[in-house]
Design goal:
The chain has 20 helices and no strands. By secondary structure, the protein is mostly helical. Helix 5 runs antiparallel to helix 8 and helix 11 packs antiparallel against helix 12. The longest helix has 53 residues. The relative contact order is 0.15.
C-alpha cells in the first residue's frame, strides 16, 4: 500500500509514493527524540507559572524583578533563536541539538541552586538561549527529514511536545505545591524536573542521523542518501536525493545565505512574512496566559490554591487542540486558511473577554466564565495557529537561508514575547483584565490584516517547489 498519491518534485517529476516499512518507524523514532527539545521548551516556559509565587517569597522579588525573572528567559531565547539558526547551518542540525541539550542542563542547574538574582538572572538567560535555539532547530530538522505527505504532521509534533511540556509543568507544579508547598525552596523542586528531558535529549541525539538536506548543502551526497534510505523506501529516497542535489548544485553557484541576501526582493519579502507571522503568533497573548495563567485566574476571582489547579485546564486544552491539529487538521486544510481562521477565532474571544471583564461584577460566575473563555482561546490557538505557524516558518525559506531565515523570524517572535511578558503584570495592575485583553483584541485585528495581505500558502508542495515558486514572485 502507498501513502497517498505520488508527489510532484520541485523539478516537475512525480516522486514515487511512500510505502510502509521499518523506515516509517525509524522516522517516528527520530521525531520523538528530537521533540524532547520541544518538551524542554514547554516545561521551561510553563514552570514559572506555578514557581513564581514561592520564588517571590524566598528571593524577595518586587514586581520589577518578577518581570525580569520571567522575561530574562525570553531575552535569552531571542538571542538563542538568532545564533541558533546560524549554528545549525554551520555545524548541522544533529550537533546543534546535542549542544542545546547540554545548555538546557547547565541553565537548569544554575536556576535550581540560585541563591539570589545575581545567579538566577544569568541562569534564566542561559536556559532561554537553549529554548530559543531549540525553537529554530527542531522544526527545521523535522521538516527536512519528513516527506511532503507527512511534513505538516511531523514538523508540528514539536508544537505538541511544547504544549505537553507546559501541561506537565502545570500538573507537576500543582502536585509539588500540594505535597511540599510548606517546604522552603519548593520552587527549586519544580525547576529541577527539567534536567530529566535534557539528559534524554542528549543521549537520544547521539544515535540520530543528520538532516539529509544539510548534508547535501555540505556536498556530502552519499551520506544524505544513506540517511534518506533510513526513512524512505529505496525508490523514493533515490528520487528525492536527485531532486535536492540538483537544487543544491544550482544554489552552490550563488552566494551563501546571510544578510547580503536581503537585497533580493523575494527573499526580503519572505523574511518580512516570516517575522510578521512569528510576531503575530505572540500578539495573541498565548504566552502571557501560559506564563501568568495562575495570576490571571486569581485576578479573575479564584483563590490562589484554586487558581493553580484551574490553570491545568489551560494545559489540557492546549494539548487537545494541538493533537487535533496535528492528527486531523494540518495536512487537510491549507496552512493559509487555517492560520487566518485561527486569528479570527482568537481575536473574537479577546473581544468577548474584554466585554466580560468590563461589564460583569466580580464573583465566582465571572471567574468561571473567564476561565472557560481562556481555555477556549487556548484551544483555538493550538488547533489553528501554533503548530501551523511553526510549520509554515520551517517551509518558507530556501535551503541556503533556512537556518538564517528561521533565526530572524523566531528572533521577532521572542522579542515580541519578551515585551508582552514583561508588560503583562504592569498593564493588568494598571487597567485590569479588560485593558490587557482589549489591547490583544486591537493588535489582533492589525495582525489579521497583515496575514490576509501577505501570507502565502505553503502546504501541498515540496520545499524545493516552494522555493522555485517564491523565486519567480509567486506568493499565492
Amino acid at each position: 500500500m502507498s501513502h497517498g498519491a505520488p508527489q510532484s518534485s520541485g523539478l516537475g517529476t512525480p516522486l514515487p509514493p511512500l510505502r510502509p516499512g521499518p523506515h516509517q518507524r525509524r522516522l517516528d523514532l527520530i521525531a520523538i527524540v528530537a521533540t524532547f527539545g520541544g518538551l524542554l521548551f514547554g516545561y521551561d516556559t510553563g514552570v514559572i507559572n506555578g514557581a513564581l509565587e514561592p520564588m517571590k517569597a524566598e528571593l524577595g522579588l518586587t514586581p520589577l524583578s518578577e518581570g525580569l525573572v520571567t522575561a530574562t528567559l525570553l531575552i535569552g531565547a531571542a538571542v538563542g533563536a538568532l545564533l541558533g539558526g546560524r549554528m545549525n547551518d554551520s555545524i548541522g542540525r544533529k550537533k546543534a541539538l546535542t549542544i542545546i541539550a547540554v545548555i538546557f542542563f547547565v541553565g537548569t542547574l544554575g536556576c535550581v541552586v540560585a541563591p539570589g538574582l545575581m545567579v538566577m538572572l544569568p541562569s534564566r538567560f542561559v536556559l532561554g538561549f537553549a529554548v530559543g535555539a531549540a525553537s529554530v532547530t527542531v522544526p527545521v530538522y523535522l521538516s527536512e527529514l519528513a516527506p511532503t505527505e507527512r511534513r505538516g504532521a511531523l514538523s508540528g509534533r514539536n508544537e505538541l511536545a511544547i504544549v505537553v511540556g507546559q501541561m506537565l509543568a502545570f500538573i507537576i507544579n500543582a502536585i509539588i505545591a500540594s505535597m511540599w508547598g510548606h517546604h522552603e525552596g519548593v520552587w527549586r523542586y519544580m525547576l529541577a524536573v527539567c534536567a530529566v528531558p535534557a539528559v534524554m535529549l542528549f543521549v537520544g541525539m547521539l544515535s540520530m542521523p543528520e538532516s539529509p538536506r544539510w548534508l547535501i548543502s555540505q556536498g556530502r551526497t552519499q551520506e544524505a542518501l544513506e540517511v534518506l534510505m533510513q526513512v524512505r523506501n529505496e525508490d523514493r529516497a533515490r528520487a528525492e536525493i536527485a531532486e535536492v542535489e540538483a537544487l543544491a548544485e544550482e544554489e552552490a553557484r550563488s552566494q551563501s545565505g546571510g544578510w547580503a541576501d536581503l537585497g533580493t526582493p523575494w527573499i526580503r519579502r519572505l523574511v518580512i512574512i516570516g517575522g510578521g507571522i512569528a510576531a503575530a503568533q505572540q500578539v495573541t497573548g498565548i504566552n502571557s496566559i501560559m506564563y501568568y495563567g495562575t495570576e490571571l485566574l486569581t485576578v479573575a476571582g479564584f483563590s490562589s490554591s484554586a487558581a493553580i489547579i484551574a490553570n491545568i485546564a489551560n494545559g489540557v486544552l492546549a494539548v487537545v487542540g494541538t493533537a487535533l491539529c496535528l492528527f486531523v487538521v494540518i495536512d487537510r486544510v491549507p496552512r493559509r486558511k487555517l492560520i487566518i481562521f485561527g486569528f479570527c477565532a482568537t481575536t473574537t474571544i479577546h473581544g468577548i473577554i474584554t466585554v466580560v471583564a468590563t461589564l460583569m461584577p466580580e464573583g465566582i460566575a465571572r471567574a468561571y466564565l473567564i476561565l472557560v473563555l481562556c481555555v477556549t482561546f487556548v484551544f483555538f490557538m493550538q488547533c489553528c495557529l501554533n503548530a501551523p505557524v511553526w510549520v509554515a516558518l520551517s517551509e518558507l525559506f530556501p535551503l541556503r537561508l533556512r537556518g538564517f531565515g528561521m533565526g530572524l523570524s523566531v528572533l521577532c517572535m521572542w522579542v515580541t514575547n519578551a515585551i508582552l511578558t514583561f508588560s503583562f503584570p504592569q498593564i493588568v495592575a494598571a487597567s485590569g483584565l479588560q485593558g490587557m485583553f482589549g489591547l490583544f483584541f486591537v493588535v489582533g485585528l492589525l495582525a489579521l490584516w497583515f496575514l490576509v495581505k501577505m501570507l502565502p500558502n505553503t502546504s501541498g508542495r515540496s520545499l524545493e517547489e516552494l522555493e522555485e515558486a517564491f523565486s519567480r514572485g509567486d506568493f499565492r
